[in-house]
Amino acid sequence: MVYPGLHAQTDPDRPAVIMAAGGERLTYAQLDARSTQLARLLRARGLQVGDTVSILAENHPAFFEVYWAARRSGLYITAINRHLAPAEAAYTLSDGGSKAIVASAALGATAAEAVALVPDCACRLVLDGTLDGFEPYEEALATEPPTPLDDQPRGEVMLYSSGTTGRPKGIRRPLSGRSVDDPENVGTSTLERALFGMDETSVYLCPAPLYHAAGLQWSAGVHELGGTVVVLEKFDAEGMLAVIERERVTHTQIVPTMLVRVLKLPDERRLRYDLSSLRRVVHAAAPCPPAVKRAMIDWLGPIVDEYYASTEGSGLSYIGAADWLRHPGSVGRPLVGIPHVCGDDGAELPAGQPGLIYFEQAEAPFAYHGDPEKTRASRHPDHPNWTAVGDVGYVDDEGYLYLTDRKSFMIISGGVNIYPAEIESCLVMHPEVADVAVFGLPDPEMGQYVHAVVQPAAGVAPSSELAERLRAHARESLAHYKAPRVFSFREELPRMPTGKLAKGALRDEYLQDADVSS
To answer: How far is it, in rounded angstroms, from Cα 30 to Cα 11?
Structure first.
């Protein structure tokens, strides 16, 4: 694995970053020089190997300057979710021990309130403007030469889980002790090259927020290879297609929600763009409805690949399009870790029976920073090197892994396990549905009942008749007990910018209503 310094020497003018809407470009020479200057600045401000620098910004080219400054100076980098409230951002800064923060002026109000609560974060830089208590980023960088530090120990990422229950937790891995340019380093680029054929000619479109693990680390992997990263400032289904055509994008990684929104574009808009440059469309982050996956393969050909992983690095599986057509619904065979599917008692379950998914590695690959109890709960009670992140699924007789849902969202009705993701997959492609969330709510007789919250498609009015049509549609494909008993309608469902549904908060809202009415 290499870092941008090598590409700055061999092809300095090649674009490392292109911002899709604004058109701003950052060459490899610029990325190398600016990340070097920032690394020197942070060292001069007292940050030592093992300390943390955070960034709080919208999708911005400086993300990569901060990322590579940390990776070439032995620091941890934490990307803060830009949608957090100031107190939440302060928690991330404090919990991760950040000694420095780079914030954009657009998020200045959040940054200023957050750092006021974290006095130890003394090095404060602001992008694209001024902010009381912060130094202008460009002026600060200009005080340092673009000469690499005498030692460039390899830093690490320290990202935070999405926190579906309780506060988000930092996922911290030990520093390797190697130099950033050590050829023995293994990075995301290893996966990108081996599975998806990516190299220095690749043009990778990142439509996700850069504070998210996949968005940031896959883009950084492209920099290891010497390719170009095109960043969408904000996801838009048709806009993404236009960028693929204009920039001749070869690879992209998207989440199933984005696939659904692209597929629901009218044909005259969806099919007008030349997407022939695409070599691979990769999706992950959430289970993909089989009907959606099949429609994408029918449209684009056998270039729609999938992997399953977690920010924690617990395990990794992969499946290509051709293999998926033979095993529809699977997330593939494991590449990292040995999967074990276990029941509530920790005993392994037979093939085909769903349970909590653990991955076995030589040693547990992560710990939750500052939370030994959560770390302990992620380990199998009898095998400390088996780790789980809360996903439920099963392995078939051929060793292919299938996901059913998150353990925290499983519905138990009348003693029967019901997996909401299966019901959501059935309903989401209905022409009268724009988005859907399914979860369990209390029932005095059955324990829980199946409740669906639907965002109707544009021009579709919510009604009891619509609910009956959707219930009948579910019963055509699923066992009747899985069909939602109750449908609620909302103008819009809460989704994170990553495309993940904020289902925990949505369910809590309906649980509160249930408590009030009981």
So the answer is: 11
